[in-house]
């Protein structure tokens, strides 16, 4: 069973009509049609370009909470009451999507409020696991297992099920990844994610002292406390001493030279 959760922005429309700003469904993130309202004040500019900017800021916040970014967007739809308003928005749209180049459609249609001059809807596909802690939400490093070291050494196995509220998790997770690398004796980290949302992270340490340094690190302990309070539905931690270790990597087949 894949993860499904709602992302809410605080817009009054979501509560009044009964929808979410975005829905996370496994690797997919579907962002609802989003207009140029500033949801904190529920105000909207009279200018279509400013509305487009605010639309994209609103979408960016929803994507971030869902664990992805504009780079993950694969589909965008633009809805405008006036076709003449579309071209002035192109520089703004190009700034956000020019490098991404998602599939796109522009539709001319009426919107629910006469103040609205543009509405934008996107779909994105996350390229990283929706749960877990081994990789930051911005990592694009190819998946490679930690090498087999000469035993003995230690492995800390952290198994988690996450809550729906992941506000601030990505930033903290990225900070922890950088922080643990400063621990003398840290060897690396493996991560796996099941379709049902179970995340398994295995961290490797040369000796018990290195493991203790990480366990007692002040920032790490603060992150653990916040995880218990906000991010984890449940978790377990197992610490084991590795007494046997081996590995295998398939050698790349050399490419045959070709004549010019």
Layout of helices and strands:
Blueprint: E1 4-7, H1 12-18, E2 22-25, E3 28-35, E4 37-38, E5 43-44, H2 48-66, E6 73-80, H3 90-97, E7 103-108, E8 119-125, E9 153-162, H4 169-180, E10 186-193, E11 198-205, H5 208-216, H6 218-231, E12 232-242
Parallel strand pairs: 6-7
Antiparallel strand pairs: 1-2, 2-3, 3-8, 4-5, 6-8, 9-11, 9-12, 10-11
Helix pairs in contact: 4-6
Q: How does this model look, in words?
A:
This protein is α+β, with helices and mostly antiparallel strands. The protein is 27% helix and 30% strand. The chain is built from six helices and twelve strands. Strands 1-2-3-8-6-7 form a six-stranded mixed β-sheet, with helices on one face. A four-stranded antiparallel β-sheet has the order 10-11-9-12. Strands 4-5 form a two-stranded antiparallel ribbon. Strand 4 (37-38) and strand 5 form a beta hairpin. Helix 4 (169-180) runs antiparallel to helix 6 (218-231). The N and C termini lie far apart (52 Å). Mean pLDDT is 86; it is low at 128-141.
């Amino acid at each position: 069973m894949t993860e499904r959760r709602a992302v809410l922005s605080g817009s009054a429309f979501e509560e009044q009509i009964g929808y979410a700003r975005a829905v996370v469904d496994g690797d997919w993130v579907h962002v609802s049609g989003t207009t140029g309202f500033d949801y904190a004040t529920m105000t909207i500019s009279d200018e279509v370009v400013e509305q487009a900017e605010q639309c994209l800021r609103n979408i960016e916040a929803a994507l971030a909470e869902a664990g992805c970014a504009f780079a993950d967007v694969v589909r965008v739809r633009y809805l405008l009451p006036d076709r003449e308003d579309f071209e002035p928005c192109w520089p703004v749209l190009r700034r956000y999507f020019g490098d991404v180049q998602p599939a796109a459609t522009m539709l001319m249609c009426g919107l629910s409020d006469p103040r609205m001059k543009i509405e934008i809807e996107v779909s994105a596909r996350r390229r990283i696991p929706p749960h877990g802690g081994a990789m930051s939400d911005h990592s694009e490093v190819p998946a490679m297992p930690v090498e087999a070291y000469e035993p003995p050494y230690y492995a800390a196995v952290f198994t988690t099920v996450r809550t729906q509220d992941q506000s601030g998790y990505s930033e903290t997770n990225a900070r922890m990844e950088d922080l643990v690398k400063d621990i003398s004796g840290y060897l690396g980290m493996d991560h796996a994610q099941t379709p049902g949302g179970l995340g398994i992270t295995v961290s490797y340490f040369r000796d018990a002292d290195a493991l203790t340094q990480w366990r007692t690190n002040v920032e790490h302990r603060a992150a653990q406390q916040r995880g218990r309070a906000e991010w984890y539905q449940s978790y377990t931690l197992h610490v084991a001493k590795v007494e046997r270790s081996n590995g295998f990597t398939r050698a790349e087949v050399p490419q045959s030279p070709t004549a010019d």
